[in-house]
Specification:
Blueprint (H helix, E strand, L loop, with lengths): L9 E6 L5 E5 L4 E5 L3 H10 L3 H10 L4 E2 L3
Antiparallel strand pairs: 1-2, 2-3, 3-4
């Protein structure tokens, strides 16, 4: 479960039933990402001081991979 958070970059973040991560950025852009271990990702996201910075690092390191639409 993702804890409530505030972020200047992220409007919302949730997990899907099939283990993906759904991110809505401020401004309305919405993306779905795959992640190898969703529970580990959620734990690390909840612990991160800067949610936007953490998410950006996960995307750049390809821990999160965008699902092709």
């Amino acid at each position: 479960m993702i804890n409530a958070f505030t972020s200047s970059a992220i409007e919302s973040l949730s997990t899907t039933a099939d283990g993906n991560v759904l991110v809505t950025f401020n401004g309305g852009r919405e993306y779905t990402y795959t992640v190898a271990d969703v529970e580990q990702f959620v734990t690390a996201f909840n612990a991160a001081t800067s949610k936007g910075q953490f998410l950006n690092q996960q995307i750049k390191s390809e821990t999160l991979q965008k699902v092709a639409v």
